[in-house]
Amino acid sequence: MSLDEVAKRARVSPATVSRVLNNLDVVKSSTRARVMKAVAELNYHPNLHARTLAGGRSRTLGIVVSNMENPFFFDVFQALETAALARGYEVVAANTSYQPERLVSSIRLMMGRRVAGLAVIVSEMDPALRDELANGDMPVVFYDVGAPGKHITNIRVQYRKGIEKTVQYLHNLGHTRMAFIGHHAKLAPIDERKKAFLETVARYSPHLEVTTEADADGPEGGRKAARQLLASGFTPSAILCVNDFTAIGVLRELRDQGLRVPEDVSVTGFDNIKLSEFCYPSLTTVHIPRDRIGQSVFESLAEQGSREILIDPEFVVRDSTGVAREG
Fold first, then answer.
1. Measured between alpha carbons, how far is 47 from 112 in angstroms, rounded to an integer?
2. Do both 169 and 212 map to the same domain?
3. Are residues 64 and 135 in the same domain?
4. How many CB atoms lie within 10 A of CB 281?
5. What's the rounded Cα separation, in Å, for the pair 179 and 165?
């Protein structure tokens, strides 16, 4: 089935069919409806590679993320895809599982597909790879790494503000023994949250006792890290987690060990994924607007712009935090 046959069935030119399939606004709604009816009747599937060659520009965007199992990354992808589909683009995604070698191969694959733009939403970025992308011609969006350039947009979350708000809130509730649970401590964007925690609590010294623990990203990693923390002999009155996905596992481990949240231990997360509202107890966290991030990624790639976007997180209080227990 060819584009010419669709045009003949819809009684329009092949160029008009192409404009409809590329979701351009220059086609009348009645004509668009006639073309789409012909497409459905003939079961026509456009050759995306041919469309790229004919139009001179790909209508495919790429996104590479560190952990698609983490709802934070999936939400960003979904917001990007929604914005892209509305404008006639498609999105291809790759997951690295925080492995630098998979990041390299994923980016090579995206470049081989001649994507129109690439979002690199990862924590394991290699400086040499970052520079290679920055020196190329393809529009790129980085997340928390690199700097804006001629075709580079950088999205930065002000993690420090979120951590500071969390520590201050817990301190006001009387918490003096706090622990931070993270993951992949050697990755700079993730380690930034731990550094912000340690530097913030240092301002309250000598009144606060603190420690840190880390395992893998996700519920199982959070559960293991909480188990290691409690086995160490440190008895926290509050645990700050690097993200909500990890905090879910921390809540499970505390419950399994007979500790009540927040009566015995307060717990906080970061990101405000949807699950944080529905876990028990609901999670006090820091909101990162994934929908805004996804929309900003699309706009930057489609418009081939260059800018820095700062995300100021919002503190969200729910049921997992309370006044510190006496003693």
1. 17
2. yes
3. yes
4. 16
5. 16
Residues 40 and 68 in one domain: no
Tell me: the pLDDT tens digits for 100-149?
Answer: 888 988 998 888 788 999 999 998 888 888 888 888 889 999 998 777 77
| Beta strands 285-287; 314-316: pairing state | antiparallel
Q: What is the pTM of this model?
A: 0.81
- The boundaries of the domain holding residue 22 are 3-46
Among 40, 72, 290, 269, residue whose Cα is nearest residue 166: 269
Distance CA 59, CA 96 (A): 23
Alpha helix positions (H), the chain: 3-10, 14-21, 29-42, 48-55, 71-86, 100-112, 127-135, 159-172, 188-202, 219-231, 244-256, 275-278, 290-303
State whether 165 and 278 are in the same domain: yes
Give the integer Cα–Cα distance in Å for 133 and 170.
Answer: 41
The residues, any chain, with a CB within 8 Å of residue 147's CB and separated by 6 or more, are 154, 308
Residue 126 contacts residue 250 (beta carbons within 8 Å): no
324 within domain boundaries: no
Joined tokens for residue 3: 């584009």
CA–CA gap between residue 190 and residue 274 (Å, rounded): 21
Is 310 strand, coil or helix? Answer: strand
C-alpha–C-alpha distance, residues 143 and 137, integer Å? 18
The contacts of residue 109 (CB under 8 Å, 6+ apart) are 94
Evaluate whether 285 touches 269 at the Cβ level (below 8 Å): yes
Query: Which letter does DSSP use for residue 144 in this model?
Result: S
pLDDT in tens, 25-82: 567 888 888 988 888 788 776 655 555 544 556 789 999 999 999 999 999 999 999 9
Rounded Cα distance, 262 and 237, in Å: 9
> In Å, what is the CA distance from 218 to each residue of 56, 182, 287?
42, 10, 18
